[in-house]
Amino acid sequence: MADGKVVGIGGLFIRSADPAALAAWYRDHLGIAATCSGEPTPDGEWVWMQQAGPTVFSAFKADSDYFAADRQVMLNLRVEGLDALLARLEAAGIAISHREAMEGVGAFARVHDCDGNPVELWEP
């Protein structure tokens, strides 16, 4: 019998003026099985199967300058091969807005999706 606890993130839902383009951006550039609401991916996938690993769930102060003040949320994705991924993104014309490394935590880089939402890429 389940003891009534959250065991992971079940989904991420992003509003967009062009949901099909936004879903395609995540599929094409980051390899995520992103869908349009109520439709599978072009390959017929409904869910993105992830590798198990750490997830940071953190609240920031309203005046934090860690990401743009006009955004309430920033997506952070755990990656392997950050340098190779960044090279592919740059070759596709996607700007890398900043990079940093934190000892004991990992390397980070930030991009923005086609709607301007910040996406932090983290290689632990």
Automatic annotation (TrEMBL):
Domain of life according to the entry: Bacteria
Q: Which InterPro entries match?
A: Anthracycline_SecMetBiosynth, Glyas_Bleomycin-R_OHBP_Dase, Glyoxalase_6, VOC_core
**SUPFAM superfamilies tied to this protein:** Glyoxalase/Bleomycin resistance protein/Dihydroxybiphenyl dioxygenase
- Write down the CDD domains for this protein, in alphabetical order: VOC
Report the Pfam families cross-referenced here: Glyoxalase_6
Q: Which residues form the VOC domain?
A: 8-124
- This chain's protein is named VOC family protein
Q: Which organism is it from?
A: Aurantiacibacter gilvus
